[in-house]
Amino acid sequence: MSGTLADITRNCATSNAKGLKGTIYIAKVEDVATIPDAGAGTHTVSTNITMDGTEVFHSWPISKEVDKNTYESNSEGDRDSNNFVTTLNAFIAKLDATKTYILATSSNGCEYIVLFEDKNGLVRIIGELEDGCTLKVNEKSADAGYEVEIRWDSALPPLYYTGTIPV
């Protein structure tokens, strides 16, 4: 599927659900062997991501409330030098010692590849092998959980992914 300017049309045939599904998938960059290139003239990876050895993506349950999870990929800069800043904010409910330890140590300079699915069934890849995304974590007693910010700066918005998620 190649795209041109003429391919952007109004789609009244299907709904456009807001929000993210209740799981994000995360792996350390060094645990991912390959992320195939997007198909020619597309922004979609159709070939499966492969992992190093027996490594897998780990699934993290996130809130199913639309207002607790957000995804944005915004262009910044000027017309001569533009990049995209991608941010996925996810809420993980219930404070406990194990989650605090894992999330605190995960936000100390490691880089990740993150996959997430929106409520329309579209999966996106945040990060690449040469430049993974990073995590920031805030504990919140008022909401009794963790606000996790996943951030990635890149030349283009995250790719779409139609392959199998190795979990």
Keywords:
single chain; about 170 residues; mainly beta; 6-stranded mixed beta sheet; 4-stranded antiparallel beta sheet; 1 helix; about 5% helix; globular
Report on the structure:
The protein is mainly beta and 167 residues long. 6% of the residues lie in helices and 44% in strands. Strands 3-12-9-8-1-5 form a six-stranded mixed beta sheet, with no helix packed on it. A four-stranded antiparallel beta sheet has the order 6-7-11-10, with helices on one face. A two-stranded antiparallel sheet has the order 2-4. It has one helix spanning 97-106; strands spanning 20-28, 32-34, 44-45, 50-51, 58-61, 70-78, 81-93, 112-118, 123-126, 134-140, 145-154, 159-161. It is globular, with a radius of gyration of 17 Å. The protein has one domain (18-161). The protein starts with 19 loop residues before the first strand and ends in a 6-residue tail after the last strand. The chain has one helix and twelve strands; from the N terminus they run E-E-E-E-E-E-E-H-E-E-E-E-E.
Strand content: 35-45%
| Arithmetic mean of pLDDT | 93
Distance between the termini: 28 Å
Number of domains: 1
Percent helix range: under 10%
The number of helical runs is: 1
**Low-pLDDT sequence parts:** none
Rg result: 17 Å
Order of helices and strands: EEEEEEEHEEEEE
Major sheet: arrangement of strands:
3-12-9-8-1-5
Structural class: mainly beta
What composes the largest sheet?
6 strands, mixed
